[in-house]
Amino acid sequence: MTKKTLTLCLLLLISASFVAAEETTWLDLLDEQNKQILLQDEEMVAAFDNTVMGEPLLVNEGLEDSYYLVPFNKDGGTTGVIMIDAEEGFFRQIARTEQPEKYLAIGKEDAVQGVKADINPAPTETLEVEFDYGEAETELLWEPGPYSQSPFKPFWKISLGGGEWIVTQQETFYEIVPVEENKANTTVIEIEGDAPNAEGFYFTGTYYEITNSDLNNGEFSVTLTFYYNDVDNGGIVDGTMVHEPEMKLYYFGEEGWIEVENIEKNTEENWVRVTIDHFTVFALMEEQPAPAPEPAPEPEPQNTGGSGWLGGGGGGGSSAKLDMEIEGNFAGEEIAVKVLNTYGKPSADAKVTVTKDMKVVEEKKTDKDGMVFFTLEKAGEYNFIATKRLYTVNSQVVEIIENTAVFEEGPKEKEPEPIEEPEPAEEPLEQPKAEENQYETNTQELGQEIKATGTGLFVMKQEPEINALLIGIFAAMIVGAGLYLKKRLNK
User: Contact 273/224 with Cβ under 8 angstroms?
Assistant: First the structure.
């Protein structure tokens, strides 16, 4: 068996995935003469050194000739390609790159998806619509001309839905034969807001209307892929009350919203996919749980006076309900929520959901004491919703306000109260002796006048001890003044 035959068999086996590519080096594809020449090229050796052979690509050249392009990869890309004749297996050409790059620049899947995009409606931000045109046929070709000037850059021929396209390595798409029925004119409208007549559902905030007047429902097949956001991977669609496990796809029919069966859901990549044969209005939603009645309360024991306590009659049929006690309403501060059951006892493991503008802000479960705590950073109107299996849903609206309180000065220290000195023991006041009776008479009259009018230099108080003291002082002053005048007159 010749070297050429061995090379060709090796490529065929590798293409069929029978031989591990890691076991083949670039030198295995060269004849001895070209091997000695290329080993003298340091740049070529560096490009192929430590590479792993990739999958050979069969390229049809003209009507009869064909060749293989064999990529050699490292560091996440291709650094060298060897061309081998597909008929006889001999080495034809070699090429290298300075940096690893994708090869081919436009692969088979890239070319097919590009063609499908040309014959399907343009996707919206969260919905892709793809009609079933059948299986695409692909062929890698090369001949010098407007599509390519290098045999290392062949172009794709894609056949799909009765149409044909040429796709170049420069990402140029040429429609050679038009598709039999182009459905790209389908209208896809993505609408933000509440879906119509969606009472009883938790809603993702977006619904879709798809129409095509040229198509009859039931006469086509189309795949719809709906995307949604769950950035924190919390299992709840961001900004909504829709839980991923309970989320379903619905379409709007004559009887209202009807569940679409056989959907495919990917919670890792956050999409829901389904293949259907009709157009209408679609929405991703979660059906709200219907409030379930609580079993009748336990009958209270009745004392029959006998040998023990016996159960009384059964209770009424009132439904079980939750109650909430909410303490605090300042933004940025802790808000305490206590959930109670029908009997006013703490309800553990109840779910409390806080929403604002119909979007979930936070969701927690109560502890064994029925307590749960939230800190809401922004002011506004929030809805606190308490739910638990078999209990009626309870909700309360709380206005959260900014904390604008100004720190006031602390209480001033209380001034010490004056210590009351004990009153001195009463001592009899000595009345000054008047030297002459006329002055004593005047003093008595003056004291009475002052006491009666309350005017003058002093105001007489009602305490007898003070009054007596003042009278004595005034008497002494008058007596002294009289003696002074008397002496002056005698002179």
Answer: yes
The b/e string for 394-410 (b: 16+ C-beta within 10 A; e otherwise) is beeebebeeeeeeeeee
- What one-character-per-residue DSSP string does 278-294 give? --SEEEEEEEPPPPPPP
Residues 6+ apart with CB under 8 A from 151: 59, 61, 67, 83, 93, 142
What does pTM read for this prediction?
0.56
Rounded alpha-carbon distances, angstroms, from residue 379 to 331, 333, 404: 6, 11, 12
Q: Give pLDDT tens digits for 33-82.
A: 999 999 999 999 999 999 999 999 999 997 778 999 999 999 999 999 99
Question: Domains along the chain?
Answer: 3-101 (no CATH), 108-177 (no CATH), 188-287 (no CATH), 318-400 (2.60.40.1930), 437-490 (no CATH)
Fill in the amino acid letter for 330.
F
Least confident of 28-42, 87-101, 308-322, 392-406: 308-322
Beta strands in 3-88 (DSSP E): 52-53, 57-61, 65-74, 77-85
Q: What is the pLDDT of residues 214-230, one digit of tens each?
A: 999 999 999 999 999 99
Query: Are residues 242 and 270 in contact, defined by beta-carbon separation less than 8 angstroms?
Result: no
